[in-house]
Amino acid sequence: MRTRDRLRIAIQKSGRLSGPSRQLLAGAGLRFGDDGDQLFQPGRDLPVDLLLVRDDDIPGLIAEGVADLGVVGRNVLEEQALERMDGIGPGPFRSLRELGFGRCRLSLAVPADWDWPGPSRLQGLRIATSYPRLLERWLRERGIVARAVKLSGSVEIAPRLGTADAICDLVSTGATLAANRLREVERVLSSQAVLAAPARPFGDARDGLAAMLLRRLAATSRERVPA
Ligand code: PRT
Ligand code: ZN
Questions:
Q1: Are 4 and 204 contacting, i.e. CB atoms less than 8 angstroms apart?
Q2: Which of 19, 35, 121, 191 has its CA 20 to 30 A from that of 101?
């Protein structure tokens, strides 16, 4: 493994997590210079650099060692951890800290006019989702055999299009479900943004830099929420 003396943090370039992620790092005293490169911003005062990417790419970049830490939704991190796990060993990632923003839930929703006797109602059905591994784990734990139909977007219209019977999607206010005449019936995962790292320590200067960042994040969150 290559040793490095600078820490590279990946955050979402644009989307729900990008503003809060930048604020979080600024609050920890990290400043980055825009050197004209859209993807990479070097740290100004500390050996901590920024990578601006799509949120879905963050776990993969950490797994490949391209990024050292990442700010990403637990939903994305756990789905991709399941994708990369052999079922025996520990997962490839660690969540170092919950960050308190990007809160949402991954929920099952069915057409609003269905009765809901419980999860067994899903037996034999097709469920559209962008999170097939998390859904399959939830179904397996309940002994339900159903088919996860993977869609990368517009999951909520699948029941109307006839491509699936139910959906498993992220929900925050529930307005999208209501607009599509869907009813939230079961919660598969509670999520928020987390600071993600590889499962194993780096074994070089990056461990100290990550520890410093964690101390600073702990200090700023104590300032925000007085005991
Ligand atoms: O381009 P890139 O791939 O980086 O961005 P993206 O479009 O994949 O992600 P983005 O910015 O939409 O979401 C990033 C992360 O924000 C998600 O992975 C979650 O961890 C978190 N998050 C929090 C949410 C929501 N809340 C949320 N409400 N992600 C998506 N939604 C969707 C929801 O599924 C619904 O379609 O937003 C819509 C509105 O939700 P309601 O319930 O308020 O109507
Ligand atoms: Zn994405």
A1: yes
A2: 35
Are 98 and 40 members of one domain? yes
Q: Identify which of 11, 18, 53, 55 to mutate to test ligand 1's pocket (most ligand atoms within 8 A of the CB).
A: 55
The pLDDT-based confidence of 172 (bands split at 50, 70, 90) is very high
* Per-residue pLDDT band at 223 (split at 50, 70, 90): confident
**Does a structural domain hold residue 200?**
yes
Ligand 1: residue whose CA is nearest its atom 43: 173
Check whether 225 has a pLDDT greater than 70: no
Q: pTM here?
A: 0.96
* Two tokens, residue 128: 């559209």
Residue 26 alpha carbon to ligand 2 centre in Å: 23
The burial of 92, by beta-carbon neighbours within 10 Å (0-12 exposed, 13-18 middle, 19 or more buried), is given as middle
Residue 54 within a domain:
yes
**What is the 154 CA–ligand 2 centroid distance (Å)?**
13
- What is the torsion angle, in degrees rounded to the nearest 10, for the CA atoms of residue 223, residue 196, residue 22 and residue 1? 120
Looking at the structure of the chain, the number of domains it has is 2
Q: What is the 3-state secondary structure (H, E, C) of 36-98?
A: CCCCEECECCCCEEEEEECHHHHHHHHHHCCCCEEEEEHHHHHHHHHHHCCCCCCCCEEEEEE
User: What digits encode the pLDDT tens for the residues 88-116?
Assistant: 677 899 999 999 999 999 999 999 999 99
